[in-house]
Amino acid sequence: MREQLLNELQKRCREHGLEENEIFTAASLSETLQLSRNTVSQYLNEFVKKGVLVKINSRPVYFFDKKSMETVWDTTITQNIFSSFEELEASREKDFEKLIGYQGSLQTVVEHCKAAVSYPDNGLPVLLYGATGSGKSFLAALTYQYALHHKIVKSTAKFITVNCAEYANNPELLTANLFGYVKGAYTGAEENQEGLLSLANEGVLFLDEVHCLEAKCQEKLFQYMDKGIYHKVGDNEKWYRSNCRLIFATTENPQTTLLKTLLRRIPITVVVPSLKERPLQEKRELIYSMFMNEKKRIQKDIFISNLAFQTLLDFTFVGNVGEMENSIKAICAGVFVKKEQDALNIHFLDLPSYFFKTMKSVQMKTYDRESETMLPIEELHGTKKAATPLLLLYERILGVHKKNDDFLQGIERCRLLIQNFIDYMFFKEKYNVVSSNEDFLLKMLDKIYSIIMNKYSLAVSNNQIKIYSKFFVEYTKNVTDAKIWIAMHQEEVTLFHNNLQDYYPRAYRIANEVVENVELNLDVELDEMIVIILTLSFIDIDQDTNNGRIGLILCHGYSTASSISDTANHMLGSHVFDGIDMELRISIDKIVQLVDDYLKQKAPIQELMLLVDMGSLEKIYEKLAPLSDCNIGLINRVSTATALEAGNMMKQGRNVKAILEALKNNNVISTHFIEGKKRKEAILTVCATGFGTAKKISELIITSLPRTIELEVIPYDYQSLLENGLEDMIFSEYNVQLMVGTLDPEVKGIPYMAMESIMTNDEAQELYQLIGKYLDANELEQFSKNIMKNFTLSNIVNHLTILNAEKVMEDVEDIVTDLEELLEKKLSPTTKVGLYVHISCLIERMILRQEITTVEGFDALLGEHGDIIMKMKHVFSGVEMRYSVEVPYPEMYYILNYFKISDN
Ligand SMILES: Nc1ncnc2c1ncn2[C@@H]1O[C@H](COP(=O)(O)OP(=O)(O)OP(=O)(O)O)[C@@H](O)[C@H]1O
Fold first, then answer.
1. Which residues, at least 6 apart from 299, have a Cβ–Cβ distance to it below 8 Å?
2. Number of folded domains in the chain?
3. For residue 429, what are the domain limits?
4. In contact, 244 and 179? CB cutoff 8 Å
5. Where does a domain end: 91, 110, 140?
6. Opening angle at CA 598, ends 594 and 604, nearest 5
7. Where a domain ends, among 791, 810, 845?
8. CA of 80 to the centre of ligand 1 (A)
9. Are residues 537 and 447 in the same domain?
10. When comparing pLDDT for 188 and 292, which is higher?
11. ipTM of the complex
């Protein structure tokens, strides 16, 4: 019965964790074994008495199998009864657990030490090699404690340390001390003396700085290491025996400083990593435990500023853990003697001056003792979380980017987070106080911004400059934190960068330029998250305008326009207005110039809502009127309320004229409408491989129209759209509303519709909406019917080519199927239709000898995918024979583009 009970408890100890303590009670065991609780208690207590079980005398009482616990804890339990779990835990003899990083960067080191000391019969000599202060002596001492706790050595065994460096000038003394000497061995040796080898018998002898051990002494050691026997100094007759384990340590390369013959006799060399090589988390733990030790010593709470902590964390301690420990002691002592408060408050400037040497001058200039975030040292432990608002913002932005599958949705959320942070910065009391250093920084940043904004002719409000300057100021207080944080999140940060660069190339470029200039001019290193935040702030530049309608607020003074526009945008929930702050004495000509530049930068747009703070609008109206291509609605005496009202209507899609009309009853303001020199609306038709096809597509659209309309349908060169984008001349001549074609030239802000989607009647709404502006309902119905008729595949092929549609389609179908197989991608029906048309046109071009023989970038493609391109070309061999044509290789470039389109 007893055995059964013991077996059950042992099983529970093996299979369950200590924390499931309810299964280790007499009640639980009696229930399982169907025995009376008294009997179970009695048996269990008998086992405790015998030392088989451990008892925790709490309420209820718990019993554990001692051996199982010793195995789990890898230690010896010396008592059988404990008053509480805490007492049990405290009694647990710790050795290597005291070493920070014993389960991390020092795991292998520890394993080697354990192996060396426990190797039968008498352990193996081990050499610890590592930089000064890396923890070699500590490791040697812990190895000894481990041997004690695991009964590898007797409880009476000693740990003897010799620092060979101390005997550098007197090597004979070291030899005498190590091996002992006999009376008269040398002058002053008045009695027989035991050596350290003898003292350490059965224990551990630690020879530190062993490279200082003289060659003669090293040789004397060999004898001992080989046979366990040695002579005392002055007696070469008698042999003495010692049974101690040897641990050596050195800071010098053992291969060059130790005799090869000694090295050969040390089978285990353990390389102890320097502090620089340890993970950040271990550094944190080291700092934490060192401060905790000081707290115990001085019996006071300790607080440390985040900046001071991050500086310690980031600092390269040449003397490794040892130097770190001494620095922390010195810092605490330095603050302690000031006897200022009950607690010890360690500010950044309390660190010894050598910590500041690496700080950039601006960081020092912006340092403000009062605004430092103070943390209780207990919080340093394991704090992986960002500790400052800026880092918290970093963390959140990255988190949103990581979590959101929809990149653009994520971007909006990130912008909101930044907005919240800005609110926080401006409304938290401490940020309203601008120190003189901050003021200097703001002015410098203002200049940098102005130069860059001028270069890109961008309107960035003074308020925005102020906001982002605040970011820099905030950043300069967190450089160290930020750097560390970025290093820990490098991969995700880079990914975010790449995405931003792809989605918002212009904003990304400008953000980088701002950062480069700030770094250059202000002697401060900014980080990659600042680039991300700035790019997010410039995104509007890359975004489409509100139905071609934009708002601009112009006011005199440092920040009036920016404040109104920011507030209005904030409340409208989208970017409707830009604000330009103007000098107080700016001339009307200059204002007009500002507006003109602004319009050029935003072109192509249809309408501008311009709100100004002037009383009279006449002068500005006169000068603006002849300039404008677009309609301008002019409103004076701008206020946040008028901006909101106008902005709201803009968001509803109302045109400028209608908005002015609606605001007429407001008797505070007056308005003017400037009719733009009208640019005709247009649709561009494009085809990647030739103007001819584009022309035919436009003819097809035009012939579908029941009557001529104001809208132009213009065949246009694909290549020049691709290269020039919005800068292309066509966009200043025409108000281009849509592009239709076989391949998207990807002009930002101009919608594109694939011809295939007209044919499959798929997403052709944009075309109907546009044409619908010019036709009445019946006419539009007619247009849609014509389109359906004209845009069937065979009609298109017939229309676009001179070939017999039916015949050529058979060939084309085969080619597309073969290509799909070869390139291992099934095209969607729409893309497939596009490719049908493309290949039909291609065949025609071959017949008409209008083949494409050069394509930019083709050589690189050929170099990379030569094999596949050869195979693709082979797919056309049937057609080549039938029509006696030769399809040139560069044509494959365009074909491949269809397979690159993401169909999902
Ligand atoms: N991993 C660690 N965890 C906790 N404390 C450590 C650790 N490593 C070193 N220390 C502490 O750092 C201090 C310096 O370590 P130690 O004296 O062992 O270095 P060392 O390599 O022997 O230096 P030296 O070569 O200068 O003798 C000691 O107080 C030790 O307790």
1. none
2. 7
3. 389-542
4. no
5. 91
6. 150
7. 791
8. 34
9. yes
10. 292
11. 0.98
